[in-house]
Amino acid sequence: MDAFYASVEQRDDPALRGKPVAVGGMHRGVVAAASYEARVFGVRSAMPSATAKRRCPDLIFVKPRFDVYREVSRQIRGIFADYTPHIEPLSLDEAYLDVTEDLRGIGVATTIAEEIRARIRSETGLTASAGVSYNKFLAKLASDQNKPDGLCVVTPRQGPAFVAALPVRRFHGVGPVTAAKMTRLGIETGADLRAQSLAWLEANFGRSGAYYYRAARGEDDRPVRANRPYKSVGAERTFDSDLVAEEDLTAELARIAGYAWTRVERAEVRGRTVTLKARFQDFRTVTRAHSVAGGVEDQAQFLAIGTSLLGMLLPAEKGIRLLGLTLSGLEEREAAPPQLGLPI
């Protein structure tokens, strides 16, 4: 979806259309999503709200409505399900579809993508961009190529050249730190990456080296997993003012644990590791984790572990602006079998 949260807000409030909009808290918060009008000014998701306001003084902040976003997401996934049962959601606004099991007998992946995009626009009033290719890595890259409201098709013949021309920072799995390291090593594009041997990449990037080696050649054999397992489930909250007192912090942590555990139960998962995240007044972020051999039994144990981890960070003389609590080490479901290919 294109600027999903912000686009929903602009759809539902005509006064916001054509204006720079950020979904998130204006005071001390972060930007959850930015409209394309805001992105022109360099406003991006995960940016501190104060920074976003400096970059775009006319920026309009809107409080998030996640219940609405979830409902729209369900509506869109219902459209997907008319075309294939093989849907792997990545978030509320993005998913992989394997259309080999072509429920409508359309026969061409590009035509399916065009029809899905048209239905999303007609039924939700929102726009979506699609990438069509022969594997997940290339489909993901292609989906970002012609945003907003675009379609990009990468055929097997085009794949290697398409990858070679892209900056490595566009590669899924290459974050800012890795991209900076690659730049220091003289790797700017997919072609630069492809010029390196597997041994060299593994020596410099460890276990990720093999992934970069295949990606540079447009190779990816991961199947679309309809029941993709969660890696972690949790919740976090940014406070209106920095918290210092232990009783205030533990009270907020209890609230956060409640939100997180509701999501754990909804996801029907069981996990072994509890991770506490804390961001201090100076934006320094630390995490502390504890694992339980038999798995965390209930919300009370989840909170007790989180409270113990919080105690390791106290006293918080500089004040804490954000707390989060996450459960990971989750039990995984069996992956769906790989599918054969449809014509692009």
TrEMBL record:
Compartments where found = Cytoplasm
Site (Substrate discrimination) at 5
Enzyme Commission number(s) = 2.7.7.7
Q: Provide the catalytic activity annotation.
A: DNA(n) + a 2'-deoxyribonucleoside 5'-triphosphate = DNA(n+1) + diphosphate
Q: Which cofactor does it need?
A: Mg(2+)
Q: Entry cofactor note text?
A: Binds 2 magnesium ions per subunit.
The record, for CDD domains, names:
PolY_Pol_IV_kappa
Quote the InterPro entries the UniProt record gives.
DNA/RNA_pol_sf, DNA_pol_Y-fam_lit_finger_sf, DNA_pol_Y-fam_little_finger, DNA_polymerase-Y, DNApol_IV, IMS_HHH_1, Rev_trsase/Diguanyl_cyclase, UmuC
Q: Which residues form a coiled coil?
A: none
Pull one GO CC term from this UniProt entry.
cytosol
Q: Which UniProt keywords apply?
A: Cytoplasm, DNA damage, DNA repair, DNA replication, DNA-binding, DNA-directed DNA polymerase, Magnesium, Metal-binding, Mutator protein, Nucleotidyltransferase, Transferase
Kindly identify the residues recorded as the active site.
94
* A molecular function (GO) term: DNA-directed DNA polymerase activity
Boundaries of each UmuC domain copy? 1-175
Instruction: Kindly give the Gene3D superfamilies that the UniProt entry links to this protein.
Output: 3.30.70.270, 3.40.1170.60, 5' to 3' exonuclease, C-terminal subdomain (1.10.150.20), DNA polymerase, Y-family, little finger domain (3.30.1490.100)
Q: Any idea which positions bind Mg(2+)?
A: 93
The enzyme's main class, written as a single word, is transferase
One Pfam family it belongs to? IMS
- Provide the GO biological process annotations: DNA repair; DNA-templated DNA replication; error-prone translesion synthesis; SOS response
- What quaternary arrangement does the UniProt entry report? Monomer.
What family does the Swiss-Prot or TrEMBL record give for this protein? Belongs to the DNA polymerase type-Y family.
What this chain does, per the entry, is described as: Poorly processive, error-prone DNA polymerase involved in untargeted mutagenesis. Copies undamaged DNA at stalled replication forks, which arise in vivo from mismatched or misaligned primer ends. These misaligned primers can be extended by PolIV. Exhibits no 3'-5' exonuclease (proofreading) activity. May be involved in translesional synthesis, in conjunction with the beta clamp from PolIII.
PANTHER family, per database record:
DNA POLYMERASE KAPPA, DNA REPAIR POLYMERASE UMUC / TRANSFERASE FAMILY MEMBER
NCBIfam families annotated for this entry?
A: PRK02406.1
Please state what the protein is called. DNA polymerase IV
Point out the gene that encodes the protein.
dinB
